Amino acid sequence: MSCDGSSYYGRHPDANGKFGIYGGRFVPEVLMSALEELEEAFHKFQRDKESQKALDLYLRDYAGRPTPLYYAARFSERVGCKVYLKREDLVHGGAHKLNNTLGQGLLALRMGKRRLIAETGAGQHGLATATAGAVFGLKTEIYMGEEDVERQRHNVYRMELLGAEVHSVRSGSRTLKDAINEALRDWIANVRHTYYVLGSVVGPHPYPLIVREFQRVIGKELKAQILEKEGRLPDAIVACIGGGSNALGAFYEFIDDGGVRLVGVEAGGRGLDTGKHSAPLAAGKPGILHGAYTYILQDQYGQIQTSYSVSAGLDYPGVGPEHAYLMDAGRIEVATATDMEAVEAFRLLCHLEGIIPALEPCHALAHVVKMGGTLGKDGVVVVNLSGRGDKDVEVVRRFGG
């Protein structure tokens, strides 16, 4: 079942890069030809058997796919339904981000680009880009907000160990939004020889399409694994949403399966009524950010509002345009979890399952704690555990964990 009764696959975005009214390409003229070149190269890459063979090899032998689908028995008993974890935290490097950067790294090679740039919030996309740059022999530079550099020093050091240069961005709120701004400025100045590895399903067309396609591997594996383990599809798939790449990667293969609830959980921060959150779907309105029309946090004058979350990877005032479309169409449900709820879920999974999760998917885990009892003990929920929590241990300790 799709949004309008016909199959969803292959129909979104349209030829103009739009998901309904969302998405598109709102960029300076100097980037238009670069985006058109990228779109053409991506479609060739998708059709080329040798390129797909190379990507499959790297995903299997280097990244470690397929990742397991783990039945979390003790966590399930606590929340009152059957909870499975899609273990993207076990991908080499510790997060789902590598699926995308291996794909875009190979695409950059096919395009003859010798330099990668990227932005990062929690550091996981920066780390994944640095990893791809190292394995493919490409010069790599990462933009990261100064506040995020402070929050994620462990990942900054890991990026540098892998040979990447990390630029600390001191403008604006000194978080992911400002890191993206700096990366876009770099790309405009060096577009002929530089490939911009965007990390989520955001930005101008074709990036939301490219990142979704490289993350679809999550949902493809998940569908086969849950059918093998349960003999049926899950009642719900729950994933955190910042930009939304891990959520769309998990959701996309199930959009036509109307009986599967798709639940995206945004960062409620200190509460939606405080203004200190990162929940553009729940509390924002449509506007343009980083080259795309989508839901964003903005004031009454249309100025972008500063986002906030204890989780650096969710600290972003916008969201992928496909999520905006799917929410308006009623195909995805949107929820929020506060900092406190996420940290409590972090502790719960540590204690009950011996798994230290990233703070990002802890927002999804926190929502499952709230919804589990409504599904009954035979209800089946899959949480996309998008990353591991080494990077967040100090943040949780300072939070009072």
Question: What's this, in brief?
Answer:
The chain is α/β, with parallel strands linked by helices.
Fraction of residues in helix: 40-55%
Physical arrangement of strands within the biggest beta sheet? 3-4-14-9-10-13
Describe the biggest sheet?
Answer: 6 strands, mixed
* Straight-line distance between termini: 43 Å
Mean pLDDT: 95
Fold and architecture overview:
- It is globular and about 55 Å long.
- The model has no long low-confidence stretch (mean pLDDT 95).
- The protein has helices at residues 29-47, 49-62, 73-79, 97-110, 124-136, 146-151, 153-161, 176-189, 207-230, 245-251, 280-283, 321-328, 339-353, 359-375, 393-399, and strands at residues 18-19, 22-23, 69-71, 82-87, 115-120, 139-145, 165-169, 194-196, 236-240, 261-269, 285-289, 292-296, 332-338, 380-385.
- It is 44% helix and 18% strand.
- The protein has 401 residues and is an alpha/beta fold.
- The strands form 4 sheets. The chain has a 6-stranded mixed sheet, sandwiched between helices. Strands 7-6-5-8 form a 4-stranded parallel sheet, with helices on both faces.
